[in-house]
Design goal:
Layout (H helix, E strand, L loop, with lengths): L15 E5 L2 E4 L4 E4 L2 H4 L8 H13 L11 H13 L4 E7 L2 H18 L7 E5 L8 H6 L3 H4 L10 E3 L4 H4 L6 H19 L4 E6 L2 E2 L6 E2 L4 H12 L2 E5 L23 E4 L11 E6 H9 L14 H16 L6 H16 L5 E7 L2 E6 L15 H12 L1 E2 L1 E4 L8 E5 L7 H17 L3
Parallel strand pairs: 3-15, 5-6, 5-7, 7-10, 10-11
Antiparallel strand pairs: 1-2, 2-3, 4-12, 8-9, 11-12, 13-14, 14-17, 16-17
Helix pairs in contact: 2-11, 3-11, 8-9, 12-14, 13-14
């Protein structure tokens, strides 16, 4: 009997034995192609010698020093590198242990920033339906993932949720991308007017929506229009790149492809590539100066903020992604994988849409391609596909409730940047066999 409180209280997962490159192995020796990097985490694959050596070297120096007393060279060096690479005026970095912590820090900083500027009335967040920003209470309230929110609704703060930029479902027949964008922007403007612009502290969004929608990018111009709205009303733009950032979409920061820079940007997953738990909140120098010239103290903190070993690991990850230009593989390998997916599933009767950017790709599952009718949610087709793929030796990341939290399903793919063409073909073959196994 296991004493671990597993994600499922009904069935314990098999024990992992080792990892090598794009594969994980269980204790029986069975290999699993990590087609989703866990949850878009393992961008370097498993067993990267450079990263593991950096961790060992830091452990030889010091494992932990609380940031109430010390900073550390790895934290300082990592912050310098992230700022040098970041878009816009992002100039300060607050290190945490994961994505939810990064988003909580962002929300609290946004509130404190407005308070210290004398705008105590700004507490309203505008976010989007079918988004996901983390599982802690502030992040969960901000997110629009209906089924994750529902059990904890009495504990969540009030947040305005507007429509996602989800062209496959939201763009009307005969409507141009520009007209669709206009309609979404009008909804945001209407919500700001309804609650009063003086009450809104931040607009929060994922540049490419990950877990809840399945790698959905925005239509051209959407985020530039939102940037203009935020600037006009004194609203902060917070972009959540926890899943889509750190090279996953083909640029180090996903928002670079939308031509915008936020006031606050959150990263995690690919920052540590799974080698250590780490996340980061980046903010502008202006925001930092408001705190510095006011209270002088960000009223927030966690025990493992700026953990030296985690920062050393993330620095080594950047060595590989940027220094060794693994980032340069993301667009071409993403195009190869997407081409294979389109060749195999482009006319599949139960695949309605293939989408994404770089090595961040999604397939939306439907009952009927022509009508886009969803598969009966009672089938839990996403869970069936996950299990069938795992049995075939493929790790992928399906989810349900894609359309509205109840209906719809998709499969998210986020393989490591080291993926080869042969492994891409293996991924597609195993996914195809999983579809057949569940009756798709």
């Amino acid at each position: 009997m296991s004493h671990v409180f597993h994600r499922s209280s009904v069935k314990a997962p098999p024990a992992v034995s080792r990892g090598e490159g794009a594969y994980l192995y269980d204790q029986s020796g069975k290999a699993y192609l990590d087609g989703s990097g866990g949850a878009a985490v393992s961008c370097l694959g498993h067993g990267d010698a450079h990263v593991t050596e950096a961790i060992r070297a830091q452990l030889d120096q010091v494992a932990f020093a609380h940031t109430g007393f010390f900073t550390s060279p790895p934290a300082e060096a990592l912050a310098d590198r992230l700022v040098a690479l970041a878009p816009g005026d992002l100039n300060r970095v607050y290190f945490v242990s994961g994505g939810s912590e990064a988003m909580e820090a962002a929300l609290k900083l946004a509130r404190q920033y407005h308070l210290e500027r004398g705008e105590a009335g700004r507490s309203r967040i505008i976010a989007r339906r079918q988004s996901y920003h983390g599982n802690t209470l502030g992040a969960l309230a901000t997110g629009g993932n209906a089924w994750r929110r529902e059990p904890f609704a009495p504990l969540l703060m009030e947040v305005s949720h507007v429509a996602p930029c989800y062209a496959y479902r939201g763009q009307q027949e005969g409507e141009s991308e520009a007209a669709y964008c206009d309609r979404l922007i009008a909804e945001i403007e209407d919500e700001i007017a309804r609650v009063g612009p003086e009450t809104v502290m931040a607009f929060v969004a994922e540049p490419v929506v990950g877990a809840t929608l399945g790698a959905v990018p925005s239509v051209p111009g959407y985020f530039k229009r939102i940037r203009e709205i935020c600037d006009r009303h004194g609203i902060l733009m917070i972009l959540d790149e926890v899943m889509c950032g750190m090279g996953r979409t083909g640029t180090l920061f996903a928002c670079e492809q939308d031509g915008v820079a936020p006031d606050i940007l959150c990263v995690a997953k690919g920052l540590g590539a799974g080698y250590q738990p780490i996340g980061a909140m980046l903010c502008t120098e202006i925001m930092h100066e408001v705190i510095a010239q006011g209270s002088g103290f960000f009223q927030h903190g966690h025990t493992y903020v700026g953990h030296p070993v985690a920062c050393a690991a993330a620095g080594a990850v950047l060595d590989r992604v940027v220094g060794d230009d693994l980032l340069g593989r993301v667009h071409p390998m993403g195009a190869v994988l997407r081409g294979m997916l389109e060749d195999r599933f482009g006319q599949h009767p139960h695949v309605g849409d293939i989408r994404g950017r770089g090595l961040f790709l999604g397939l939306e599952l439907v009952q009927d391609r022509a009508t886009k009718a969803p598969i009966d949610p009672a089938r839990k087709i996403h869970a069936q596909v996950k299990a069938a793929a795992f049995a075939e030796g493929l790790i992928c990341y399906p989810n349900g409730g894609t359309i509205d939290g109840k209906q719809g399903a998709h499969v998210l793919l986020a393989p490591p940047f080291i993926l080869t063409e042969d492994q891409a073909a293996e991924l597609v073959d195993k996914l195809a066999r999983a579809f057949v196994a569940v009756g798709l």
